[in-house]
Amino acid sequence: MIIKLTPEIIISAYREGVFPMGEHKDSKRIIWMSPAKRGIIPLSNFHISKSLRRIILQERYQIKINTSFSFVMANCANRKETWINSEIFDCYKKLFDKGFCHSVEVWDEQELVGGVYGIALKRVFFGESMFSKKSNTSKIALAYLVARLRYGGFSLFDVQFLTEHLRSLGAIEIIKPSYLDLLRNALKGDANFLLLPDRVAPQKICI
Questions:
Q1: Which of 2, 20, 61, 162 has the fewest CB atoms found within 10 Å of its own CB?
Q2: pLDDT tens digit string along 47-91?
Q3: Other beta carbons within 10 Å of 94
């Protein structure tokens, strides 16, 4: 039986620790994932290197929130291998329209050069994907995202899978039962992704 992907089904799945991925870009098949080990970034343990700190303090890029969600997602999907198929793209755009999805964008004048997007649900942020067109711009987006999550009262930043790139920024891997405990707790109470203005002061990021 094929279940049609809808925003409502996606939100229900996230509440249970399950998330969808397309089999590949040109396939309509959706795979539901519930990994035995989950990647998270503890919000009190985000690592910023000295070089990244300097770039952030120089404010050479402009940071915007939710102004070009579709373009962020399209850039995340613009790679040889991707799980973002047309069904995923359409559903997450609908989730954005409903206020669940958000993007943090890094701009160089009129050019979108980096970004990250994900779903905010109660006190959980589910990071979906990020991209960079210039050195460090995905890291900059992630740093501004972490600052926003901390300020807005979030308690869990789910990054799904642990990669070496994310590990260098403070991500860790935990077993599924531990993750589900954190998830259940984070689904209690509320947080506010939009509590900060679009421009977050650099000192709020350099933690």
A1: 2
A2: 888 888 888 888 899 999 999 999 999 999 998 888 999 999 999
A3: 15
The count of residues in the chain is: 207
Tokens coding 98: 């409903």
pTM of the model: 0.92
CATH number given to 36-82+99-204: 3.40.630.70
Q: Which structure tokens are listed for 44?
A: 């009190």
| Sequence ranges of the domains in the chain | 36-82+99-204
Contact 33/191 with Cβ under 8 angstroms? no
